[in-house]
Amino acid sequence: MTLFSVINQQLAILLVAKFAALAIVVACAEYLVFPHPLQNGGLMSWEVGRLRQPLMVKGATGRVLDWLFSYPRISGLIALRAVIALLILFGPLTIVLNPWLLCVFVLVSMLLTFRNTFGTDGADQMGDLLFVGLAVVGIVTTHLTMNVYLWFLTFQACLAYAMAGFAKAVAPGWRDGTYLVGICGTSTYGNARLRDLLLVRPTLSKWLSRGVIIWECFFPLVLLLPLPLALVPLIGGIVFHLMMAYIMGLNDFVWSFLATYPAVLYCLQVRGW
């Protein structure tokens, strides 16, 4: 029995949910352990963020939002999101696809996104897609909805990687490696040791950048390659995300994007070509 013959529809859904939940646990833990950005003096201060719309400051609406989103009360919403994610991470399929649990989770996630319209990234966006889709599957648990969801995630992964690759490919700074050196020199996403290494080895920086561009642009070929050759882009993705977690601290990226890989493996099994 091969690896692919045991990745059936339900197992693929279960693995998608587990990886996605792990990404949420990691993201929530970062906020709960390092809450300073959410505090009044932080970059995600509600005192400042609510000023973007008069409705968020004045009247009853403003008072409700202020009660819900001010620090430290916002930590309660984050903790609730983490608890639900833990239930999904360690629970059986009946818990994973519980529509009430998933709908509450999506609602809490939407509230947190509404509070912080900036500071999100591709991992957050992928997480929203993963859990909104899971909620739909939980409400309408049929073979068709599961199949559509898994194919949607597969195409979404291909689109996300390809568009990121094309965006880098048209930027001279990415093609010659200077952007990679610049990112490694930042305080938020930087790595001083790697920056120093790439500064004295510009050729290495250039080909590392080009390698990422090539892999991202051609990731959609995973749908056309025969097995087991189709595993190569997926293994490349695992290595890429682990490196980004180590170098740039993008810890939730690992799990939110790898959450799409069980869907890709399932679709490779049933694609018919």
UniProtKB/TrEMBL annotation:
Stretches that traverse the bilayer: 12-34, 74-93, 100-118, 130-153, 218-247, 253-270
Keywords: Membrane, Transmembrane, Transmembrane helix
Membrane topology recorded in Swiss-Prot or TrEMBL: Multi-pass membrane protein
Subcellular compartments: Endomembrane system
HTTM-like domain span: 38-269
Domain of life: Bacteria
Entry GO terms, CC: endomembrane system
InterPro entries attached to this UniProt entry: HTTM-like
Keyword Transmembrane helix listed: yes
Main subcellular location: membrane
Name under which the protein is recorded: HTTM-like domain-containing protein
Origin organism lineage: Bacteria, Bacillati, Chloroflexota, Ktedonobacteria, Ktedonobacterales
